[in-house]
Amino acid sequence: MPMAGPRTRCDPVRPGRGQATRSALICQTVPVITSPYIELNRDQWSALASSAPLPLSQEDVEKLRGLGDPIDLAEVDAVYRPLTALLEDYIGATRARAQRTAGFLGVDEPPTPFIVAVAGSVAVGKSTTARLIAHLLARFPATPRVDLVTTDGFLHPNRVLEERGLLARKGFPESYDRRALLDFVAAVKSGAPSVSAPVYSHTVYDVVPGRSITVQRPDVLVLEGLNVLQPAPRGPRPGASTLAVSDFIDFSIYVDADPADIRRWYLDRFLTLKRTAFTDPQSYFRRYAAIPDDIAVAAASEIWESVNLANLRENIAPTRGRATLVLRKDAEHRMSQVLLRKA
Ligand SMILES: Nc1ncnc2c1ncn2[C@@H]1O[C@H](COP(=O)(O)OP(=O)(O)O)[C@@H](O)[C@H]1O
Ligand SMILES: CC(C)(COP(=O)(O)O)[C@@H](O)C(=O)NCCC(=O)O
């Protein structure tokens, strides 16, 4: 993310013993690191929290956190109190600008939903971030109506993935119905009164036929998924639209961590799911419930390497620099650094 450019730096050279005292300069070309982000460490970020108590209990946090994510009230306080305050500020500024523009044009055009996108690898904890943001923003008087949509509903059904030889590419850009996802986000951002999105089930590992979630012009839409910062497909047909989902996003958050840590979280979660969700006869992974842990871990490792890590490297991590804010986590899921796009 930081960009390097050369500059000349000159430092005075101290004369050695017995040498003439005339000062001298030694000059060299050194790279200058500039970045479009303001970087804050954990203490700097968490110190931005206001002293008002968070409208959340430890019990709420336990309900909202994803499987394997140890986040507690103190961590929510450190990360999400400043984050939601910042988001409310962005939302207020966006609304004020929309009002000024409507006044300038002499039209009566209310602001459209503010879209917050949450991106990052499989198993990095996007759903915890998305759920906490949605829950907290809904408690602010200016944004009581908040909806949360995950992009997995826009995956092609397994039948289509199988036909196209893409079952082992689930989560890769081509495994989604990108047109439908783009149409959905564009409709929300056009102020459509009611827009529906399909729903995915992690249990059956497929899109649920006939099920949908309807979004009715909320104050905020939180959109969570691997691919929300993905650019439009490369080399589109001449004349085809180059619009991408990210063109309709007002604020994006990339949840970032070391791939070695994410791998461990993925495998630990797989073992927990093996004892819980996979025992459901409806579970796509039910065959793993009854096999020894080491064989299940070997299979999960293979899925991690060949699907999720490959997708992280090829498609997801390259979009990190497009995010408004990068939330960097340490090996224990604790926020270690926040990068915020300079205004
Ligand atoms: N095979 C599965 N069965 C049931 N739930 C799952 C399964 N895989 C993932 N989940 C759940 O789905 C949610 C989204 O997971 P994922 O897409 O990996 O994103 P993240 O971990 O970044 O939130 C998580 O809450 C996770 O616990
Ligand atoms: C469904 C997912 C692609 C996540 O989709 P998202 O909500 O981010 O659009 C992912 O959880 C997944 O199932 N990946 C395929 C490999 C695996 O089983 O882990």
From TrEMBL:
Subcellular location: Cytoplasm
Reactions listed under catalytic activity: (R)-pantothenate + ATP = (R)-4'-phosphopantothenate + ADP + H(+)
EC number(s) on file: 2.7.1.33
Keyword field contains Kinase: yes
Residues binding ATP, per UniProt: G120, S121, V122, A123, V124, G125, K126, S127
GO terms assigned for molecular function: ATP binding; pantothenate kinase activity
GO cellular component: cytoplasm
Enzyme class: transferase
Protein name: Pantothenate kinase
Species this protein is from: Actinomyces slackii
Lineage, uppermost ranks: Bacteria, Bacillati, Actinomycetota, Actinomycetes, Actinomycetales
